[in-house]
Amino acid sequence: MTDGAVSQPARVLVAADKFKGSLTAVQVAERVTAGLRRVVPGLAVEALPVADGGDGTVAAAVATGFERREVQVTGPRGESLTAAYALRDGTAVVEMAEASGLQHLPAGVFAPLTATTYGSGELLRAALDAGARTIVFGVGGSATTDGGAGMLAALGARFLDASGRPVPPGGGGLRDLATADLSGLDARFQDVELILASDVDNPLTGPKGAPAVYGPQKGATPEDVAVLDEALAHYASVLGPEQADLPGAGAAGGLGYGALVALGASFRPGIEVMLDVLGFARALERATLVITGEGSLDQQTLHGKAPAGVAAAARARDIEVVAVCGRLALPPEALGHAGIRRAYALTAIEPDPAKCMAEAGPLLERAAESIAQDFLT
Ligand SMILES: Nc1ncnc2c1ncn2[C@@H]1O[C@H](COP(=O)(O)OP(=O)(O)OP(=O)(O)O)[C@@H](O)[C@H]1O
Ligand SMILES: O=C(O)[C@H](O)CO
């Protein structure tokens, strides 16, 4: 029965991230809405799929009314692929993972030393060509550790070895860097606001740097990590060592650094930027209950992930927040600190993890029915 009934008439805002591997953020919102309405027919529900700058960021922007634009770009291994960015009223949302994300590598295939961000630069150029005056550059979920050198090369920079030849693509190639010529960089960046919307605030190199922390998820062995760390430190000694310790420099394999040092970008936590871009504050004004969530509610969630950002913003306005997730790895106290009253995990309904992934949609509807019973009846 009711344990936290919200003031009537109830109006629910579903502002959840994707369940990576099973449901997009749009699907999460649809399933939650369906489950809620089975218990409370006609319930007012607003869907605002959210993202934190990592993969799914363009999809969230498009779901809130941005126009989806497609471009042919270079993938992390040099292949051609179709990537999208989002555009509305002179603001572009560009997601580096669309061009250079891990999802573009075949299962089990990695390219830790050679994967390039060239396609991310091509995406930025397409946004400029379309007339963007503000670019929200969502970074994270990358397959790359090249310090953004590929991106800068696509935008007109030249990275040469001692004999004047371009260095090979990828972070490994930066060991051979002798000269960086940024004079040909696209001049339009001087007049455009470029906001680095990052899911992490790591520095470029060192024990908390991009290679050490995120290299392994891109297939880097300990030896590769050492090579990449040295290569990126060398790259920064050529381009500008001061920016290497700025928050966000280590995002997306150091692409954050490239954007900060050469494109005049400013760093902001991804979820904060995205909540602004998506019009979250306005949607919140109309809500009496917020439902947030993501695939795995865990320690990472507390460090600036979408549900933590949503909950903080909603609690600041005294609005009750509950969460849905695939798996829950946080105790109730930690949820409470994050402003989340209760979390509903699919694994609490279906203990078999494989079934939980395969039947995520119907299970999420059942979780939402429980939320409706607990908070809306
Ligand atoms: N239907 C599901 N049932 C159970 N667990 C799920 C389900 N869907 C996703 N997960 C879990 O969530 C994990 C993905 O977590 P999540 O969606 O929070 O993304 P993430 O890896 O934290 O990345 P990001 O930073 O992009 O959000 C999966 O690896 C899996 O363990
Ligand atoms: O892409 C990456 O390296 C991680 O998502 C951190 O930004």
What does this entry look like structurally?
With 377 residues, the chain is an alpha/beta fold. The protein contains 15 helices and 13 strands. Strand 12, helix 13 and strand 13 form a beta-alpha-beta unit. Helix 1 packs across helix 15. The longest helix is centred in the middle third of the chain and has 18 residues. Bound molecules: adenosine-5'-triphosphate (ATP) and (2R)-2,3-dihydroxypropanoic acid. (2R)-2,3-dihydroxypropanoic acid binds next to loops.
The proportion of residues forming helix, as a percent range, comes to 25-40%
Structural class: alpha/beta
Task: Write down the secondary-structure element order.
Answer: EHEHEEEHHEHEEEHHHEHHEHHEHEHH
Report how far apart the termini are. 7 Å
Strand order of the largest sheet: 3-4-5-6-9-10
Counted by DSSP, the helix tally is 15
Basic shape: elongated
Radius of gyration: 21 Å
The CATH architecture of the largest domain comes to Alpha-Beta Complex
List low-confidence stretches.
none
Strand fraction equals 15-25%
Based on DSSP secondary structure assignment, what is the total number of beta strands?
Answer: 13
Q: What CATH first level of the largest domain would be assigned? A: Alpha Beta
Nearest-integer average pLDDT: 96
Protein name: Glycerate kinase
Keywords: Kinase, Transferase
EC number: 2.7.1.31
GO molecular function, one term: glycerate kinase activity
